[in-house]
Design goal:
- Chain B: Keywords: Membrane, Transmembrane, Transmembrane helix.
- The complex is a heterodimer of chains A (804) and B (77).
- Chain A is of the alpha+beta class.
- Among the domains of chain A are: 52 residues, Ribosomal Protein L24e, Chain: T; 89 residues, 2-Layer Sandwich (Alpha-Beta Plaits); 105 residues, 3-Layer(aba) Sandwich (Calcium-transporting ATPase, cytoplasmic domain N).
- In chain A, 51% of the residues lie in helices and 18% in strands.
- In chain A, helix 25 links the parallel strand 30 and strand 31.
- The longest helix of chain A has 38 residues.
- The relative contact order of chain A is 0.08.
- Chain B is built from 3 helices and no strands.
- By secondary structure, chain B is mainly alpha-helical.
- The longest helix of chain B is centred in the N-terminal third of the chain and has 27 residues.
- Helices cover 78% and strands 0% of the residues of chain B.
- At the A-B interface, helix 4, strand 7, helix 6 and helix 7 of A face helix 1, helix 2 and helix 3 of B.
Chain lengths: 804, 77
């Protein structure tokens, strides 16, 4: 059978399943009614150029029903929370648009919004999918705007931009401007400085020298006072709270050199050091900028997650269904959840039965069937039928919102080790500044000349400028980060390298981290009389991971599979699927389904799939979530590196130990809830041990944000990735080992660099104090020491290559 | 070479660079670089139609403001 693309979403389907539509000239094919509807709408609006702009990329078929839950957008509570009225009296809202894949999607959404009556402004960010819409509330309403977006196959959620985004965005923009000014000044001052240095050695006319000095002055001023503003601010806060930091040293060093250069420029005596001022300020600033950048990314993901949480629930009061904002729901209210909805409030089931996907909380891939009196947790997703339950907590008290709050808190308090590094640099700065002051006083008394004393004191500060010390860490980490990235290991912040190198304990999640995360067929038995095509078709009707696992197995092991046509397909909640094929009654699912149907069957492992036709079992599959291939070897290496490995899982004891034995882990904690995992991390930290935690799900997120180093595996949930410090791109455990290797090598290099720069300062500062060094030479030797540090850092690359 | 000439050359080159820097900073302030993917891809869609859309949006905004004003004036009566 030939395959064909749906004319709207461009996804590939079997030709037979596509809907054929001949109303628009040549026949068109669609995968679903939704796609067809959007196609017609675009045609009638004259927007068919969207498909050219799409350029063959595929998009998601529309899913959300047009009108579902629209009324909530016009509730007063909602307006109060999300809609802002601007100065001109127009309404403004920030939305996150779901389903955007490419620039063409952005174009289409904007275009449609532009054409909508009453919309005055619409801009969509193609990277974060956040949109800002301004409209005239007299001409249109928010619900109708959202309906417009849904009509073209996308969906929109409101979010509160005040949360984090605006703050992070403003900070990033400000830092970027400052960096640009600094870089501009540095680049230009460098070419002037070359002329200056050449003139110093070969001689230069006084008037030309003063022109160059003045040009340098013009460039250095914005660099010092605009870009360098952060050091002054840091120094001021430090001063206010009674400590000296790296900021203080840079601020004093730079301003003293600047002040002296001003004096030299106007008096015409001595050399100017505007170039050193600019370069010190800019280079150190670049490091600060990178920090701000990573923070912004994490905020984006968090907003997207909060935005997709429902803000309203259906509550049954006096036999009537009403829509209530989650904050208004009291414990004891009866709430109704429909298939596909996310539960936001904890509760106990009153009536109905449905399976719930709790994977985001426990990490277990198999949905759980919940009947009367069983507890359901917020964060789980109702999969197949309508359930009414009694709320056992308010929204604030529910697990989900607790997790979100904790995440928000942890994201704002990440940097730890930097403060330590800063305090060391602070003491160093204090010592240097006092030495410089003493030198100045000493020389002033001895020589009696203010100028000589100042020149020597500045030499001391310049030569002791913590450039090498300041560069020792960033350059080495930069190289370390680069090597890591080549190996598919992304460290989100430089200081994490250091933390990781110090770690002695590694905590691992089971599902998805140690194992593949999807059940795979271990044992299969298929009766020769079994119609594989029928089984294949039946498996296709369910998206349950077990069915998918068996389906994959069939695809791998059977040739020429064709889906047979089934009738009366009926999903039996969390147990399996029943259907009719020709005259035969067929069923596929768990042993419990077979028992219900009164079909005799053999017991197979915990995760299994049975297929029966007319009451006889024709196929049996036992499935297992298998450990990743390289797990055993990597864990053995890690243990050799003197790292203690422990497994934390939400799964039951037998499943946990089975995997542990296979990969060679001796310490296991099982049946843990998200906050219990975090408690284990805390327990280790209380003993003063640095902990690395690796995981992939939302259920690990709390533990991840608690750990000193959090590692998210490549395919992990977005929230897990944003809470983590290290991301492994290729999802293999080998890169976990690489992460340890890279961080340890880098850390060793950092220590060498710091050692060298301290040695450098110890030998050169006395020389400078004695007046053997003029500021010019001081600046040159300072640069040389920086070069040594950089060269040493470059060795990380070669060391790791040799290690391979 | 006279000092004056050097001064002219240096100030013109730095001045030109500064103009470009200021333009960049202005773009940054007004949010033109906030969205990398749009910045790169939107070039493909930048045509006469986009211009027409921009003009239309401006028109719509003016009309809405006009309406506001008129209804505001009528209110006190």
């Amino acid at each position: 059978m030939s395959k064909r693309r749906c004319d709207h979403c461009q996804l590939l389907y079997e030709e037979a399943v596509l809907l054929c539509d001949e109303t628009v000239g040549e026949p068109r094919f669609f995968c679903c009614k939704g796609c067809q509807g959007v196609y017609h709408l675009l045609q009638s609006e004259g927007l068919e150029s969207f498909y050219d702009k799409l350029g063959g990329q595929s998009i998601t078929p529309p899913e959300t029903p047009l009108a579902s839950g629209l009324e909530k957008f016009d509730l007063d509570k909602f307006k109060e929370r999300y809609i802002k009225v601007n100065d001109e009296g127009f309404c403004e809202i920030s939305l996150i648009i779901e389903g955007i894949h490419c620039a063409a999607c952005v174009w289409l959404n904007e275009k449609v919004l532009f054409q909508k009556e009453g919309v005055l402004e619409a801009s969509i960010n193609g990277t974060s999918h956040k949109a800002r819409i301004v409209w005239d509330s007299e001409a249109t309403s928010l619900s109708s705007i959202i309906q417009t977006i849904r009509a073209i196959g996308y969906n929109a959620h409101p979010y509160d931009p005040k949360l984090q985004e605006e703050h992070a965005n403003a900070a990033r923009r400000e830092y970027y401007s400052r960096l640009l000014v600094g870089v501009f000044a540095t680049m230009n001052i460098m070419w002037i400085a070359i002329a200056q240095y050449a003139g110093y050695f070969t001689g230069m006319r006084g008037d030309i020298k003063s022109v160059l000095n003045f040009a340098e002055f013009v460039l250095a001023t914005p660099a010092l006072f605009y870009t360098g503003w952060v050091y002054y601010r840091g120094a001021y806060y430090g001063f206010k709270h009674g400590y000296v930091s790296m900021d203080t040293l840079i601020a004093t060093g730079a301003s003293l050199a600047y002040g002296f250069s001003l004096y030299a420029m106007f008096s015409g005596n001595g050399e100017t050091y505007f170039d050193s001022v600019t370069m010190i300020v800019t280079f150190v600033f670049a490091g600060k900028y990178l920090e701000v950048l990573t923070k912004k990314r994490a905020v984006d993901t968090l907003d997207a997650m909060i935005g997709s949480l429902p803000t309203e629930v259906t509550v049954i009061r006096d036999g009537e269904k009403i829509l209530l904002h989650v904050e208004e729901v009291q414990a004891g209210d009866v709430i109704e959840v429909r298939p596909g909805e996310k539960v936001v409030i904890d509760g106990v089931v009153l009536s109905g039965e449905a399976s719930f996907d709790e994977s985001s909380l426990t990490g277990e891939s198999e949905p759980k069937l919940k009947g009367q009196k069983e507890a359901i947790l917020s964060g789980s997703i109702c999969l197949d039928s309508v359930v009414r339950y009694e709320a056992s907590a308010t929204h604030q008290g529910s697990i989900l919102s607790k997790i979100v709050t904790l995440l928000e808190v942890s994201m704002t308090k990440k940097p730890r080790i930097e403060q330590l590094a800063n305090s060391i640099a602070g003491k160093f700065s204090l010592v240097v500044l006092s030495i410089a002051l003493l030198t100045f006083i000493g020389w002033f008394i001895v020589s009696g000349s203010f100028e000589t004393a100042l020149v020597v004191a500045i030499s001391v500060i310049v030569i002791a400028c913590p450039c090498a010390l300041g560069l020792a860490t960033p350059v080495a980490t930069l190289v370390g980060l680069g090597v890591g990235a080549q190996k598919g290991v992304l460290f989100k912040e430089a200081s994490f390298l250091e933390n990781m190198a110090k770690s002695r304990v590694l905590l691992l999640d089971k599902t998805g981290t140690l194992t593949e995360g999807r059940p795979k067929v271990k044992e299969a038995w298929i009766d020769p009389a079994c119609e594989v095509d029928v089984l294949y078709a039946l498996l296709g009707t369910s998206s349950h991971p077990v069915s998918q696992g068996v389906r994959e197995y069939l695809e791998e092991h059977t040739l020429a599979l064709k889906e047979a046509t089934l009738l009366d397909v009926e999903v039996v909640e969390a147990k399996g699927v029943q259907a009719k094929w020709k005259e035969h009654a067929i069923a596929g699912g768990s042993g419990r389904l077979m028992e219900e149907l009164g079909i005799a069957h053999e017991r197979v492992g915990a995760t299994h799939y049975l297929f029966s036709c007319d009451g006889v079992v024709l196929a049996r599959f036992a499935l297992e979530d298998t450990p990743k291939k390289d797990a055993k070897a990597v864990l053995a290496h890690l243990q050799k590196m003197n790292i203690k490995v422990e497994m934390l899982t939400g799964d039951n004891e037998t499943a946990a130990w089975k995997v542990a034995r296979e990969v060679g882990i001796t310490q296991v904690r099982h049946s843990l809830f998200p906050h219990e995992k975090a408690a284990v991390v805390e327990e280790y930290q209380a003993k003063g041990v640095h902990v690395v935690m690796a995981g992939d799900g939302i259920n690990d997120t709390l533990a991840l944000s608690q750990a000193d180093i959090a590692i998210a595996m490549g395919e992990g949930a977005d929230v897990a990735v944003s809470a983590s410090d290290v991301v492994l791109l290729n999802d293999s455990l080998k890169s976990l080992e690489d992460a340890f290797l890279v961080s340890r090598k880098t850390y060793r290099t950092i220590k060498q660099n710091i050692g060298f720069s301290l040695l450098y300062n110890v030998t050169t500062v006395p020389l400078a104090v004695l007046g053997f060094v003029n500021p010019m030479i001081a600046a040159i030797s300072m640069s040389l020491s920086s070069l040594v540090v950089i060269g040493n850092a470059m060795r990380i690359r070669t060391m790791l290559k040799k290690g391979k | 070479m006279s000092g004056g000439l050097v001064m002219v050359m240096v100030s013109v080159s730095i001045g030109l660079g500064a103009v470009a820097l200021l333009a960049l900073l202005w773009g940054l302030r007004t949010g033109q670089f906030d969205d990398q993917s749009k910045f790169i891809n939107a070039v493909h869609f930048d045509d006469e139609e986009a211009l027409r859309d921009a003009a239309m949006m401006e028109q719509k905004r003016k009309e809405a403001q006009e309406r506001r004003k008129n209804s505001g004036k009528k209110m006190p009566e």
